[in-house]
Design goal:
19 strands, single chain, 3% helix, mainly beta, globular
Length: 276
Amino acid sequence: MSKGPGLFSDIGKKAKDLLTKDYITDQKFTVSTYSDAGLGLTSTALKKGGLSTGDVSVLYKYKNTLFDVKVDTESNISTTFTFTEILPSTKTIASFKVPDYSSGKLEVQYFHDHATLTTAVGMNQTPAIDVSATIGTPFITFGAEAGYDTTSGSFTKYTAGISVSKPDSCASIIMGDRGDSIKASYVHHLDKLKKSAAVAEITRRFSTNANTFTVGGLYAIDHLTVVKAKLNNHGRLGALLQHEVIPKSLLTISSEVDTKSLDKNPRFGLSLALKP
């Protein structure tokens, strides 16, 4: 693939991951195994409230092709095929779910040294069409995306964004919700290994004049343990501790509390991901 700008979905992704990734309020247990032949098997059990679910995923990589099949406890079968370099500088992704046959989607990504283009089309009689594009370099990227519903003949979304990256920081601005919201974020890494970072994000919705301001951070206690925390202007405080119990296997303990309603019980989450 090229060394040009990333996909439109990459704009603001670093800040989003720091503020949302691994924050859980459920109980999750995952076991993954991989073979030298390119075969991977992952089993997941999830308890959310009083409901327990699970799934088994099989991943197989052969040359430039990746096959991913997942079966869950509700008898849904999700299948994804990823083909790299069918045509030069492209990635093709086909996905569908059984028994929901109308959920099929075909996505083609094209990468250039100064631009990317992504087109996704639903595989049904009245498909939804999503198109996104970026131009620029790995350091500064301009992008836009749009969604079109062929049933109603109207646009379901249109979004524009810009991202500026440096070796130790990244800033982005996204105008979304068909022009009704704007989100600005900034991430600053505090060490050369990027194990510790600070993040700030502000979102304004024009139709309601509502603002949400969130700050957060990531700190590596040592090479096996990291802690994260976040707080927004509505009083939502989240924190987590993640420890590598054995190589590539992570234990995550997470909690969330409403500091403006301390009479409410805090929410806790626990995740154990084993990769023997």
